[in-house]
Amino acid sequence: MSGKGVFIAVTMTALMIVAAVYATFWLVGRPVSKPTAAPETTPNRTQAAAPKASDDASEPAPGSEGIPIKLYIPAGSGRSLATEEQEIQLEDSVQKQVRQVVELLVRRSASFPPGVEVREVFITSQGVAYVDFSPELVQDHPGGTSAEELTVFGLSHTLIVNFPVIKTVKILVEGREIQTLAGHLDLTVPYGRAPDYLRPESERSESRNDEAS
């Protein structure tokens, strides 16, 4: 190779080295771009909230459960008893439930004078239910044998049929024993189920079948 060729080769090599060095410095000095952060998302509050309990799953409030009962009220003829289906609220004692039934009977039965109030109800361990009424029961009673029987036996039969714990029922007025309502029945003694001739026809049939068996 001639001297001129060597010079050209050396010059080209030097230029390539300089270019390489410059390129290296340019790359190192270039600012590095930061990665773009993913956009923050706000949680959906509606989806994140705890599910609301269904109203259907809620427990019944105390006293809200109904208990079916039978009332024995005067029939259309006024000479016997007829049944009427009703409901009372569940209570924490039998005594409270008995009071509910008596108060309902007083309102629904034509054999009780208007204005009569139930003062107290209590049951003995022997199964005697004492029912204490306001004085209107005696003062405003219409009288007559049938009317007195329907009042007394409508009450006793209603309580005995609906509450097996009750065997007999005794009527008081203002906390005291009374002789009678209208002069036909002795109220110094408690009374049991209504006699057969006062019961609804369906129960008379059942009573006769029980006696026959």
List keywords for this structure.
4-stranded mixed sheet, 38% helix, 6 strands, 213 residues, alpha+beta, single chain
SSE topology sketch:
Layout: H1 3-29, H2 45-48, E1 66-74, E2 81-89, H3 94-108, E3 118-123, E4 128-133, H4 136-139, H5 145-162, E5 168-173, E6 176-177, H6 201-212
Parallel strand pairs: 4-5
Antiparallel strand pairs: 1-2, 3-4, 5-6
Write up what this structure looks like:
The chain is α+β, with helices and mostly antiparallel strands. The chain has a domain at 66-212. Helix content is 38%, strand content 18%. The protein has six helices and six strands. It has helices spanning 3-29, 45-48, 94-108, 136-139, 145-162, 201-212; strands at residues 66-74, 81-89, 118-123, 128-133, 168-173, 176-177. The strands form two sheets. Strands 3-4-5-6 form a four-stranded mixed sheet. It has a two-stranded antiparallel ribbon with strand order 1-2. The longest helix is centred in the first third of the chain and has 27 residues, at 3-29. The protein is elongated and about 145 Å long. It starts with a helix and ends with a helix. Mean pLDDT is 80; it is low at 31-61.
Concise synopsis of the structure shown:
The chain is α+β, with helices and mostly antiparallel strands.
DSSP strand tally = 6
Describe the biggest sheet? 4 strands, mixed
Mean pLDDT over the residues: 80
Tell me the distance between the termini: 146 Å
Coarse shape: elongated
Rg is 48 Å
> By helix and strand content, what is the structural category?
alpha+beta
Low-confidence stretches: 31-61
| Count of separate DSSP helical elements | 6
User: What share of residues are in beta strands?
Assistant: 15-25%
Strand order of the largest sheet: 3-4-5-6
Helix content: 25-40%
What's the helix-strand series? HHEEHEEHHEEH
